[in-house]
């Protein structure tokens, strides 16, 4: 902490993403003058050590945002809806990791590698997209820029940490029960607030978030709608099937996409992604090099591999995209937005 | 065992699929007069109890097939190539669960619900398709019959038992090591005979079988080529991404398909699959009903759910297909082929 810099608040400081936000701020040497760690009344009073200094978690209230420059929210949609505008009213810029404002036409939805310039249109709140959307658009954007983009069909392999720390604990406890042949009762996944809960250890659950009337889940519709908004491609054809698998951290995605141009080779796509911001190309089948969630944990980047041309469709390609859902999918993208705001002069030291 | 019936040989009797073949023969009350359990020299001499009777595993040799009516092979491609023709020479019909003869133009590749009549063209050997192919074509065939089929894009979530019993043991031991923070060394997956081995517990590996020069794996090319052959659709556009996930038994598939007809609803597809042979429809999002691998273990059927129409492509649909890869994907389909052979009069009691 120095005397220069910003007063930063983290709302939801005790959650899986909040914890990562704090660690990322430290790791990235974010210019912090003062740090407020906020949470629900339930977690208030807990103590956390950040960079050698002890902090007491405070209950998030409208007054908590007095003097705050940048507020990173990750405490659920209703907290963002209630307190986000209160923070803005008090002069803070809000970077919100919930879905509360993502599709609001007055709120930019930003992945810095893709649409950093949308930050200029902000009205106090900037939305951080859904984790599964972020890593996909980081990989797709350089391709769109060069060859156009017409269609995307994605099937996800999502980690349980996307459903919070309790889901990770459930995965590990269940796995242990199954290995030692003990009974267990699923309580968290697929969706804590939904009616039925199912085994996730050694299983795959094709439900993330609740279902909409059209048969898609909210998670799937988030991927569909957010991708179009972030990429400024309202006509893009996107469809998604979102599946939870027994992985703690790291989302994987099998992505089929069609570009606008004919005659492009897989090597041209690989060359593009080799130099793309935020992307690490891991694509060498001969040496069994491809991205895997176990290798991406703790990394800020989006890992792409298995790039190959469709055997029938000249403009069709397949790729495999992996990233740490708590970092690029959440905490890192939020901190990165805050860094962009500073660089673009959209937040100024008071 | 009765005096009537057939002399059946199981080759690879100690393997994961061989064991399921024996259990399936018993469970299905297959008319067996005599049962020969064969394996490599390494496993010969072991004793197995089948239906209360003890059998000693014999080493598979050309002479082992004297008097055999039906030989179910599942001991690896090279064993099938060596001993399959020897069995045929001695009057047996071979149902081969390896990839040795699948794409051979003189060998029918059969999923009874789809192309039982191809059995009439057999020349002694009938090939059982790859596990991931079988469950997909069972779900697609009724749709093709009614509405035609133009394109398929599949991403798989495959169980480790497809790589044999050692892979299942590796999954469980690794999971235990990770849960108790002990070191471990991957030795089996993704492909025992390939150079590098990777963690499968709490991970996802986008490699099943080795890579071909076109960037697809052999597993992916099997799904592509076998689907066209079984469905008699050489022009069908098929592409596949095959991924191993930490599940012991039960393959899942996210399948996008395009039919030939316009204006078809998801409910029409559901109605078709409700009455389709070998299919159990589990599709009620409101009540969180959809197929999951943990629920399909030990079942012969193919479970289909999450059927929904694509939001952009009128002829496009998505579905989620799950089946026990050791049963419908291997043992049950092989025994079912044997049952079809009997019913069609293509094998006769001696």
From TrEMBL, chains A, B:
Limits of the Semialdehyde dehydrogenase NAD-binding domain: 7-122
Residues of the active site: 131 (acyl-thioester intermediate), 251 (proton acceptor)
Pathway: Amino-acid biosynthesis; L-methionine biosynthesis via de novo pathway; L-homoserine from L-aspartate: step 2/3; Amino-acid biosynthesis; L-threonine biosynthesis; L-threonine from L-aspartate: step 2/5; Amino-acid biosynthesis; L-lysine biosynthesis via DAP pathway; (S)-tetrahydrodipicolinate from L-aspartate: step 2/4
Catalytic activity, EC: 1.2.1.11
Binding site for substrate: 158, 244
Top-level lineage group: Bacteria
Gene Ontology MF annotations: aspartate-semialdehyde dehydrogenase activity
Binding, phosphate: 102
Keyword list, A-Z: Amino-acid biosynthesis, Diaminopimelate biosynthesis, Lysine biosynthesis, Methionine biosynthesis, NADP, Oxidoreductase, Threonine biosynthesis
Binding residues annotated for NADP(+), in chain numbering: 14-17, 42-43, 161-162, 183, 325
CDD domains listed in its UniProt record: ASADH_C_bac_euk_like, VcASADH2_like_N
Catalytic reactions of this protein: L-aspartate 4-semialdehyde + phosphate + NADP(+) = 4-phospho-L-aspartate + NADPH + H(+)
Entries under InterPro entries matching the protein: Asp-semialdehyde_DH_CS (IPR000319), Asp_semialdehyde_DH (IPR012080), Asp_semialdehyde_DH_beta (IPR005986), NAD(P)-bd_dom_sf (IPR036291), Semialdehyde_DH_NAD-bd (IPR000534), Semialdhyde_DH_dimer_dom (IPR012280)
PANTHER family xref list: ASPARTATE-SEMIALDEHYDE DEHYDROGENASE, DEHYDROGENASE, PUTATIVE-RELATED
Functional note: Catalyzes the NADPH-dependent formation of L-aspartate-semialdehyde (L-ASA) by the reductive dephosphorylation of L-aspartyl-4-phosphate.
Family to which the UniProt record says this protein belongs: Belongs to the aspartate-semialdehyde dehydrogenase family.
Quaternary structure, from the entry: Homodimer.
Name the UniProt record assigns to this protein: Aspartate-semialdehyde dehydrogenase
Biological source species: Neobacillus pocheonensis
Gene name of the encoded protein: asd
């Amino acid at each position: 902490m120095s005397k220069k810099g910003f007063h930063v608040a983290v709302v939801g400081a005790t959650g899986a993403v909040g914890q990562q936000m704090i660690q990322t701020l430290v790791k990235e040497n974010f210019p912090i003058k003062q740090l407020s760690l906020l949470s629900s009344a339930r977690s208030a009073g807990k103590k956390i050590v950040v960079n050698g200094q002890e902090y007491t978690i405070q209950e998030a209230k409208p007054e908590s945002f007095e003097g705050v420059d940048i507020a990173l929210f990750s405490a659920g949609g209703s907290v963002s809806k209630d307190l986000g505008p209160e923070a803005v009213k008090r002069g803070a810029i809000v970077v919100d990791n919930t879905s509360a404002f993502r599709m609001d036409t007055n709120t930019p939805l930003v992945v810095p590698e893709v649409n950093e310039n949308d930050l200029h249109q902000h009205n106090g709140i900037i939305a951080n997209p859904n984790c599964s959307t972020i890593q996909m658009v980081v990989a797709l954007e350089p391709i769109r820029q060069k060859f156009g983009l017409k269609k995307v069909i994605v099937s996800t392999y999502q980690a349980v940490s996307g459903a919070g720390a309790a889901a990770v604990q459930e995965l590990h406890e269940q796995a242990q029960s199954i290995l030692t042949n003990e009974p267990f009762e699923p309580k968290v996944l697929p969706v804590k607030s939904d009616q039925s809960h199912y085994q996730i250890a050694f299983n795959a659950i094709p439900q993330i978030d609740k279902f909409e009337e059209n048969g898609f889940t909210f998670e799937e519709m988030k991927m569909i709608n957010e991708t179009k908004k972030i990429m400024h491609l309202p006509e893009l054809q996107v469809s998604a099937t979102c599946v939870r698998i027994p992985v703690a951290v790291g989302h994987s995605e099998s992505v089929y996409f069609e570009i606008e141009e004919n005659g492009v080779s897989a090597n041209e796509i690989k060359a593009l992604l080799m130099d793309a911001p935020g992307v690490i190309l891991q694509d060498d089948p001969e040496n069994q090099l491809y991205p895997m969630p176990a290798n991406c944990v703790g990394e800020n980047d989006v890992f792409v591999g298995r790039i190959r041309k469709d055997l029938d469709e000249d403009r069709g390609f397949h790729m495999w995209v992996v990233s740490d859902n708590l970092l690029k999918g959440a905490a890192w993208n939020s901190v990165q937005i805050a860094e962009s705001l500073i660089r673009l002069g959209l937040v100024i030291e008071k």
